[in-house]
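Instructor's aside before we start: the two examples that follow are unrelated to each other. I chose them only because their records fit on one page, so don't look for a connection. First example below.
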Amino acid sequence: MQWIWESIKHVYAFLAVLPIIPFLLVYFGYGAITGDRKKAFSTAMDVTTALLIGCVEVLFNRIFHSSFGMYGILLIMLLGGGLLGNVQYRMKGSINVKRILRAIWRLGFFLMSICYVILMFIGIGKSFLTA
């Protein structure tokens, strides 16, 4: 049973190292099956967000010698959800949780993409300086 868990971790790690690959695979694969490019793009974003969260967490923890990466990401996402919920309640008088979760997940894609690029450059630069 241990080998199954290890295999899953290795596949996740492989896909998370270069998140553009699973994004393109899902985008073109789902787009070819359904023919709906807009839905394919949003599905690719959703899948890639999970990979980016893990990758940004590991990069953050390794660069800053910390274990706060996942907690920081969750904190930012929860604060964003609270702020969006507050705005939605003030504008419409009610809260649509599904819509807030989708918005936070999609905003997380863009935030994690930016963090991924920045942390990757910092990590590469740091490795050249110490080598």
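Example two begins here.
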Amino acid sequence: MADQAHKSDNSNESLAGNSPEQETRFPPRGVPIITGINRIGLWSLYIKEVRRFLKVQTQTIWAPAVTTLLFLVIFSVALGRSGREVLGVPFASFVAPGLIVMGMMQNAFANSSFSLLAGKIQGTIIDLLMPPLSEGELMAGIVAAAVTRAIMVGGAVALAMVLWPGVSLAVAHPWAVVWFGLMGATMLALLGLLTSIWAEKFDHNAAISNFIVAPLSLLSGTFYVIDNLAPMFQTISRLNPFFYVISGFRFGFLDQSDIGNTTEAVLHSAIGLGVFNLVLAIITYRVLKSGWKLKD
């Protein structure tokens, strides 16, 4: 009888989930199983986002390259036909770097501003919020995919421009090309993620793209040097972060820029742009962590 009672007690402990084997196999509720960075989850999210835009690469990669090349053709024919030079180089070579990084920034915004917004509209946002990913990992995966798309678009645009007669893309400072290209893409990817959190329909996303991103990119010295502007408008241009991205990226190719012809001036702008992106990343992280308009 004692043996039966002992077996009965053991079986009751097993049913209650208090056996020593289960306590070692399963941690208590509320204790995370995944510690540190969830590398598998982060990589899965990144691949998901990359595959999403690669499925329609004609629209997401090659169409922006063709559109940007048309800008080059139009402005080269309109302004560069008479052999006009800007910053000591032909107009086509002057405008080409700005168009490349402008295309990169606009497509980084387009990619990151779609992910969460599409999930909210289609009712699939739970697929992004339920997996064991922290807010930082969720942000990193979406931003990294947007930067990847920006790099692909930049490569496609550069390839098309190299084939265009009269355009030289010889690199003078590789570090400036890499740094300002990545910082510009990251800045717009973070801005796009903030937009996707705030927006409730595609019209909201389009409003930010048409009334903020497009004007700031087009009025940032892509097609002109700001020295040609009145002093007040020069000051306004220098308050535009897009201006430093485009001028710094152009410095990497031409060794000339509106920021200043010295490497020290461009370095100061590079550091300032990095700090600006860090602040923007912290803001984006805090908004994402708060669950605003995502978990309501």
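The CA atoms of residues 79 and 91 lie 8 Å apart.
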